[in-house]
Design a protein that fits this description.
Largest sheet: 8 strands, mixed
Number of domains: 3
Strand content: 25-35%
Shape: elongated
Helix content: 25-40%
Radius of gyration: 30 Å
Number of strands: 23
Distance between the termini: 62 Å
CATH architecture of the largest domain: 3-Layer(aba) Sandwich
Structural class: alpha+beta
Strand order of the largest sheet: 1-2-4-3-9-12-10-11
Number of helices: 12
Length: about 575
């Protein structure tokens, strides 16, 4: 008896220890997840960004999948993070949001906002109900840098490159990238050159002598500006006329693409660059993408299309959706303004969101991330083009900000230099790490507010339901089945543009059962007078060619003969799939 009790006690102790070990492993895993402490008060190089993405994917393997969608011109991976809760279904079965950043090499902070968005969703899953709901109901495809070579150039070279690094013959002399800017004084920065000249067109500003301003008619100048640091590398009498790259990846997308003589930097044909081709291929392979956000660099703007006036205004129903999200964005991002690209900024042919918004009919925004109003938190200041006095004042305030809050970190005082062609000159001015990117201590605020705007946009993607099922017996084994198919968010399952361009498969509502025959089916256009828009063929399959509008429902009716269980299914490419079982 004692031996039996001892064996039982030993068995219970083993079970307890195994349970204790299991709990400790679970706790350790939870701590491992919570120990991904990314900081957002500095900028991540391409290598650091890659490592951060890999660390996140390793820490949250259930929800995150990191893939390379292609290689850049120089062979760097173009990383994309898929965020999805597989317990709630595959990512392609849910409405998804595509987010990218840093398509222009020097617009680096888009990468940080994308990284912050991934980190924020994972850090708060299971803690904040709205975050948990978003991750469970939606999928996210986040591409922090679609231009890895341009990002690497910005971090590793003295200059600042807008394009990628594929060589281009910018001056049509048969040579490629042969005369770039040069760090001729060896301080690690490409700054500005100026030269004293009594006939010059520039003088020091009255607000701060470090600022160079153009003289007014009749005034005497003191300097000429010679552009960015550099020499005539190819001996053609020009300086810096053929630097690295020299194209614009954000003019290389298919919708309204124009050749370079109309749209500078557009490339030989749409998707002619490996980076844009990889991004476009991914988007086309994921028709469930219902929202797009592209992060750019400077101006404090929430932009939507059209990119060109000739495209015409968006259909009224789509415009209402854009206006609702864009105007809410102005509240989330108080230093930003909601603008139409061609009307309020400039004409863009072949841009990313021109293709996704005007071509594919996906609700798409592009945020210009940094607003100079945030230097001193002044909003609503006039920024009229051509207002030189206002420009001077802003530059003087910017210098004061650099002096007081950054200890003069990003402005280089003018210093003499002996140039091989120009002789005695001075080199100085702003570092590339200012003006277009925020000071590092203001970066996290920018990341968080833009992340919140993006998640608000994502929350407006379709949430579809089958509800209010009504079964009425009409005769022996004959029933009328009515259901509402609904969309509880403002974004429709098919936009008006997508419907017009036929870029999205229609939504489909079906009824099925092993013991039923569907006699008729259609859309109820007036339930009070029982007016039906019937389906002529295959009445069990109702096609909703224009989808389900935002915050609305459609009443479907079938007349069926039979008995037993039936299944009603709503299948929306951009809204997901819902099913409901009922009994006759």
């Amino acid at each position: 008896m004692i031996q039996i009790k001892f064996r039982r006690l030993t068995f219970l102790m083993i079970i307890f220890l195994l349970g204790y070990v299991s709990v400790k492993i679970t706790d350790s895993y939870a701590r491992q997840e919570n120990n991904i402490n990314l900081t957002f008060n500095h900028y991540y190089s391409y290598e650091e960004l890659s490592d951060a993405l890999k660390s996140l994917a390793k820490a949250y393997p259930k929800f995150l999948k990191l893939i390379s969608i292609g290689k850049s011109y120089e062979g760097r991976d173009i990383w994309l993070m898929i965020i999805n809760n597989p317990d709630a279904g595959p990512d392609k079965s849910k409405p998804a949001m595509y987010i990218d950043g840093n398509i222009h090499g020097n617009e680096v902070q888009g990468g940080e906002v994308c990284l912050y968005t991934i980190w924020y969703l994972m850090k708060n899953y299971g803690k904040l109900d709205k975050v948990t709901e978003l991750v469970d109901q939606k999928a996210f495809y986040i591409l922090p840098t679609i231009n890895p070579d341009g990002r690497a150039y910005w971090f590793n070279k003295p200059g600042s490159l807008r394009s990628g690094t594929k060589p281009v013959d910018n001056d049509n002399d048969g040579l490629y990238d042969e005369d770039p800017p040069d760090d001729i004084d060896g301080d690690g920065e490409i700054l500005t050159m100026r030269k004293k000249d009594p006939d010059g067109m520039y003088k020091p500003s009255k607000y701060d002598p470090r600022i160079m301003v153009r003289v007014k008619p009749g005034e005497k100048g003191e300097y000429i500006l010679l552009g960015s640091e550099g020499i005539d590398n190819d001996g053609d009498g020009l300086v810096n006329e053929d630097g690295p790259g020299g194209y614009d990846p954000n003019r290389n997308w298919p919708f309204d693409w124009q050749p370079p003589y109309i749209q500078y930097g557009s490339g030989d044909y749409p998707f002619s660059y490996p980076e844009t081709r990889a991004g476009g291929k991914f988007i086309l392979e994921h028709p469930n993408i219902a929202a797009v956000q592209s992060y750019h660099n400077s101006g404090g703007m929430i932009l939507r299309g059209p990119g060109a006036q000739k495209v015409g205004e968006y259909p009224a129903s789509d415009k209402r959706v854009y206006d609702y999200i864009g105007k809410m964005g102005e509240k989330i991002l108080p230093f930003y303004r909601y603008y139409v690209i061609w009307k309020d900024l400039y004409t863009v042919h072949g841009g990313t969101i021109n293709w996704t918004g005007e071509g594919l009919g996906i609700f798409s925004f592009s945020n210009e991330l940094w607003s100079s109003a945030k230097y001193y938190y002044k909003s609503g200041e006039a920024r009229r083009r051509g207002d030189s006095e206002a420009y001077e004042k802003r530059q003087a305030e910017r210098l004061k900000f650099d002096d007081l809050l950054e200890m003069g970190k990003f402005y280089r005082e003018w210093k003499p230099f002996k140039h091989p062609t120009y002789g005695d000159i001075e080199i100085g001015g702003w570092s590339k790490r200012t003006n277009r990117v925020p000071p590092s201590f203001q970066l996290e605020d920018l990341c968080h507010r833009n992340c919140m705007f993006t998640l608000f946009h994502a929350d407006q993607m379709p949430v579809i339901e089958i509800r209010n099922v009504e079964i009425k017996k009409l005769g022996e084994d004959v029933f009328r089945v009515r259901v509402e198919v609904a969309n509880d968010r403002i974004i429709p399952t098919i936009s008006a543009i997508a419907s017009k361009n036929k870029t999205t498969r229609p939504d489909i509502v079906t009824i099925s059962g092993s013991n039923i025959k569907v006699l008729s089916g259609g859309i109820v256009v007036d339930k009070w007078y029982n007016r039906i828009e019937p389906v002529e063929h295959k009445p069990e399959r109702i096609i909703l060619r224009n989808g389900i509008k935002g915050n609305s429902q459609i009443l479907i009716q079938w007349i069926v003969k039979g008995y037993g269980n039936v299944n009603i299914k709503l299948d929306c490419v951009k809204g997901g799939i819902r099913e409901k079982k009922v009994s006759l």
